Amino acid sequence: MKLKLKPFQKPLERRRHQRVAISLLGRYMLEDKREFPCQTTDMSPGGVAIVAPVRGNIGERVVAYLDQIGRVEGRIARHTERGFALQLSLPFAKREKIANQLTWLVNRDALGMPEDRRHERIVPHRLHAILKIEGDREYVVRLIDISVSGAAINTPAKPAVGTRVVLGQTPGHVIRLFEGGLAISFDKVITADHFDENIKL
Q1: What is the per-residue pLDDT across 33-92, written as a single tens digit (0 to 9) for each?
Q2: Region label for 35, one of left (φ > 0), alpha (ψ between -120 and 50) or beta (otherwise)
Q3: Which residue among 31, 98, 144, 157 sits deepest, i.e. has the most Cβ atoms within 10 Å of its Cβ?
Q4: How far apart are CA 65 and CA 59, in angstroms?
C-alpha cells in the first residue's frame, strides 16, 4: 500500500502587514479614560505590540500617542506577557504615512540620519488663535503647526525667550523666535485623546 503524501503547505500568515521591531515611548488611554505610559516592541501599519502596565479587555478601544508616530487608535486584539497587541483602525492615508515613518525610523541609524522632532506635528483645521503675552496685549495669530508639547505661530510680536504666554486656553512659554513668528512650549502635554486636526487650544 502506497502512502499518498500531501504537498507541503506553508502556514498562513496571520498578519496582513509586515511588523518591524521598534521601541517607541508613548501613552495610551483605555475606554474608561485612564491613561498610562507605554512602549512599543514591534509595529506595522495595521497593528502594534505594546508593553503596558494595564492590559485592558480584549476588544476594548484604545487611543495611543506614540513618539515619532503620533496619534493612533484601535482595539485590543490579544494580551501578551508584558502588555497587549493593538489592531489599528486607521484610514488608508494614515496607514501609508505610518509605513513611511516606520521605514524611516528603522533605517535612520543605518543611514546616519539626524534625530527627528520628538513629537509629531500637525496643522489644525482652526488656523487662528488668540495669543496673550505676559505684561502685553493680546494678538490674533496664525498657527503654523502644533504638537502635543508646543506650537509654532506666525505673529509680529517678539517677546523674549522665556516669556510666559497663553495660546488660546493653553499656557506655556516662548522657546524660540524666528522670522515672522515664534515657537511655544506648553506647560502640560496635550493628551492623546484630544490631539488631532480638530483640536481647539
Answers
A1: 999 989 899 999 999 999 999 999 999 999 998 887 888 999 999 999 999 999 999 888
A2: beta
A3: 98
A4: 19
Q: DSSP states of 138-169 as a string?
A: EEEEEEEEEETTEEEEE-S--PPTT-EEEETT
Q: What share of the chain is helix, strand, coil (3-state, %, to 5)?
A: 10, 40, 45
Q: Which amino acid is at 161?
A: V
Amino acid symbol at 4:
K
Contacts of 50 (CB under 8 A, 6+ apart): 28, 38, 39, 40, 41, 64, 83, 84, 85, 86
- So what CATH class is 128-194? mainly beta
Amino acid at 92: F
Does the reported pTM lie above 0.90? no
CB atoms within 10 A of CB 162: 8
Interval 121-165: pLDDT, tens: 777 888 899 999 988 889 999 998 888 888 889 999 999 988 999
Looking at CATH, the fold of the domain delimited by 20-111 is given as: Thrombin, subunit H (2.40.10)
Beta carbons of 181 and 139 less than 8 angstroms apart: no
- CA separation (Å) from 149 to 87, 128, 154, 173, 198? 27, 18, 18, 11, 16
Count Cβ atoms below 10 Å from residue 139 Cβ, excluding itself: 16
* Residue bearing cell 496582513: 16
Domain boundaries defined on the chain: 20-111, 128-194
